[in-house]
Amino acid sequence: MKIAVVGAGPAGVRAVERLVAAGLRPMWLDEAPDGGGRVYQRPPPGLKRDPRTLYGFEAKRANALHGALDALKAKTHWRPDTLVWNIDPRARTLELLHGSHQETVGFDAALLCTGAMDRIIPIPGWTRPGVTTLGAAQIALKTQGCAIGERVALLGTGPLLWLLAYQYLKAGVRIAAVLDTTAFAHKAKAAPALMGGGAVFAKGLYYMAAVRARGVKIYEGIEPLAIEATAERVTGLSFRTRKGYPCSVRCDAVAMGWGLKPEAQLADLAGVPFRFDDLQHAWIPERDGAGRTPVAGIYLAGDGAGIGGAEVAELAGARAALALLEDTAHAVDAPTVAALDARLAALATFRAALEQAFPFPAALARDVPDAAVVCRCEGVTAGEVRGMAGAAPTGIARELNRAKSITRLGMGRCQGRVCGQAGADILAAALHMDVAAIGRLRAQAPVKPVPFTAQAAE
Amino acid sequence: MTWIETDVLIIGAGGAGTSAALHLARRGVRCVLLERGLVGGQASGVNYGGVRQQGRHPAELPIARRSMTLWHALKDLAGTDAEFTVSGHLKLARDAAEEADLIAYMEIAKRHDLPLRLIGRNALHDDYPWLGPAALVGSLAPEDGSANPRLLVPALARAARAAGAQIREHAEVTAFSHDRRGFQVIANGTAWRAPWLINTAGYWGGAVAAAFGEPVPVTPLNPNMMVTEPLPYFMEPNLGVVGGNVYLRQIPRGNVVIGGGNGTSDPAVPWSRPSAEETRAAMALATALVPRLSGANVIRTWTGIDGEMPDHIPVIGESHTTPMLLHAFGFSGHGFQLGPGVGQILSELVIDGRTDVPLEPFDIGRWTGKAA
Predict the structure, then answer these.
(1) Shortest Cα distance, chain B CAs vs residue A442, angstroms
(2) ipTM of predicted complex
(3) In contact, A96 and A102? CB cutoff 8 Å
(4) Considering only CB atoms, which chain B residues are within 8 Å of A102?
(5) CATH hierarchy code of domain A3-117+261-355
(6) Tens-place pLDDT, residues B191-239
(7) Closest CA relative to residue A111, chosen from A417, A316, A260, A279
């Protein structure tokens, strides 16, 4: 039986571990050169940094995962540096890109652990040089040992905002300000429910407290107005305080993000149906608690199946692998399954509280000014998206994909991975419709740009 | 059941059906256009975007000529030119047999007043220095060009509505019948009745024709399409080859749209997918013609569902089984340019009872064995 596991982050590693333990030898594909996922991404060879510096409290967990990953490579068909750019659920094939080499491989069952990316609100100026996502700012630190600027403003909401602030401070980076669009009072209200998160919650509190203790300027409950920049670099960030006063900070770089969104294009291409999750304010591929999808032979785990974080991803990866084994007449240990299910259920409660503590500020996305660029690949402004609800020569677009086909929103290099959610919020508001009712951008292969060279066809 | 009366029912909101609705409404005829999905959602909306006369079957040229005048009037008709650009269409020969084919077509073009210019081996590479050695000889149709297929049908639909046509999206026709009171059709819970029925349902037009006792051998066609990231603009003409196994054009913002081969589909769902293998093959053929495309990133691939006839020309004209039933489907992968003209011709058949474009070659009787 041919099993393909896509992704070697926390979910992928723990999934492969179970499959190998059952005597299987899956094909294991990862886009990065050395696995680990975004959360435990390792520096390239030659850059030695202490895991404690790199991963903080997560060093132990990171070390354990890297250890498991390295031990499993030889027991699988390990294919690093390999992008899976398409999945054909009928032919049961994956399209691979390794360097400029393309290859088609078959599978009987596929476990997709495709991770997540930052969610963006296109505030004016977000496309200027010096603006990155929180995740990218963190990866710069983890893999290159550098910061995105000398005076960095951190904007957005969610645990990553505070974790990055903490990590940048520890690395000696000057932080111009931490600007959280969620008010302190709102987060405090969610605290009782968050207690169930135990150590994860404690670490989150620690990061927030540590950042406060270092005397960094902190603004909470703010509304960002614009990132100011010259042609070459960011110069500042203007915003309204919680009480409505205009304010600004000087900075030479901005990292921003409002939580994460699943990277679920392969699940989409595999034909898995999606549902809009109000709490996560995102489209989530359908799966049961074990990671089985309605498409036979397709399993999902980790943040690509709905945001849960690294700890959940490890458990979900193991659970999905056990589901696959159960479905293919392999013996699985029932108490192990029950323990995983219980732990996943407990963490799901914590996750829901976390989403409530750091909600996606959809109103902020809906209200970006007409002139702001929403789709940076194609240069589509918020005004052009809103035009789809009015008197465009092509008529009203009541569906997001129709608005895409007319305005080019989400048609560029990123295929809507960056702008899709904000574009949907803007269009839905202009149409006075529920954001779930206008649908979601369909995934179209390739998942990421694929170079075609003459020899690729040979 | 309450029947809503109209003059003309049209099934299928592609280019031909939507243009028919527009031209009927502009001449004061009540019509209702029923579309299973969204207007322009299949072949008319996801095709390559070629607005090409060169290389067509001679029988199609009079329709193509008529359609071209409408393309030039599109801004007035529909409020947008749908990015219609007269860039020229350069058809290339890659060997002696293909060259002979290009030369033979010069005669056909002359008979239909289609201007073409043969470009010899030396001039070809002087005029288009980015062409690779695979391109031997070219034939340039200076009047041809391209447009954005995603814009054409929605714009025609809006104009048709403004002129008084009713257009119902998400209205799949689930029952038809015909008696002395005319046609009765049920779509998405609404019952419609009209003396006229126009079948512009693309691949699914075959099922409509079969429902009226005229089955034809139409099969699904899924042109395999891809687009690159933006590259510096260098390629003005829309490029094709003899045999049609690859076609490509660059839009002014830099993306290169490339087609070639076929994807797969299941029209019953409907569901369609491009093919990775065909994408690679088309890219190799494109790169042989234009070497600087080697290594370009493809950012999206797609396909849709069109109807292919065994003789590669559509069915257009009156039914042989049912009075006041008109067909226009099976455009076999090259209906985008024809759509606006076909719609106008259909409106003339309804209102005037005739058109000046010869339609005999497209008669459905060629498949059902009944002479026109």
Answers:
(1) 11
(2) 0.93
(3) yes
(4) 276, 280
(5) 3.50.50.60
(6) 999 999 999 999 999 999 999 999 999 999 999 999 999 999 999 999 9
(7) A316
